[in-house]
Amino acid sequence: MSNRRSFLKFAGAGAGALTLGALDLSALAATSPSTKSVQQDIAILNYALTLEYLEAEFYAAFDNGALAGKLSNGRAKEYAKELAAHEQAHVDALFATIQKLGGTPVTKPTFDFSPLIGDGSGLNDQKFLALAATLEPVGVRAYLGQADRVQNGEVLTAAASILAVEANHASGIQELRTQLGFNTKPTRQTAIAPQSDASPTSTSVADFDGDFSPTPTAFWKPLSMEEVLLIVKPLIK
């Protein structure tokens, strides 16, 4: 999407249509490096909060939720538990920061993971880790995509701290997938994971390639809000 009009069109523009869950897309569409402000920082933080809600719920489902019984490997279970705690900590930190800035934290949307997992019957350790390897790079690149739009130095520092954790998650997951024989391209260097080399600009999960090096040396390429929201939109009711 090259401009605001096309972005709003994808979102279903029109009176009352500018929401994704409880997220105000019109505020997000207007953010830019040239319009830095407290309100823009709040809009960006609410965007990040929505993504962290998604990740926290995903990992919690495999930790102590409805999908916990799908995991059998002890380390996969440990990852689900630790990452669920990390993502909830990110939610709490972003929520508090938005309030500190005088904003209203966005309400947690209702998530539907069936576009990724179907009815859940085929889930196992391998598929859980493959999904995690898809989600984490999106989070890393989403934070990078907003770095030049943030005004408040404390907000930027906090976002950078969360980005670093998300990058560690991506590497840790790939290391475990490699050790378990699930990662078929452990030497692939990439800046665009989970997007594939064959379809580097696609936002369809069907085109993604979650196999890459646990220690990538290529600089991560930022994802715009438009791209990230296209990726996650099918998961938000």
Summarize the structure.
With 237 residues, the protein is mainly alpha-helical.
Structure description:
The protein is mostly helical and 237 residues long. The protein is 52% helix and 2% strand. It has helices spanning 4-10, 25-29, 38-63, 74-100, 114-117, 125-144, 153-179, 225-232, and strands at 19-20, 23-24. A two-stranded antiparallel sheet has the order 1-2. A hairpin with a 2-residue loop joins β1 and β2 (23-24). The longest helix is centred in the middle third of the chain and has 27 residues, at 74-100. The radius of gyration is 17 Å and the shape is globular. Mean pLDDT is 88; it is low at 1-19.
The number of distinct helices, counting runs of at least 4 residues, comes to 8
- Helical content, roughly? 40-55%
For the termini, the CA-CA separation is: 22 Å
Please give the largest β-sheet. Answer: 2 strands, antiparallel
Radius of gyration: 17 Å
What is the assembly state of the chains in this entry? single chain
General form: globular
Strand order of the largest sheet: 1-2
Mean pLDDT: 88
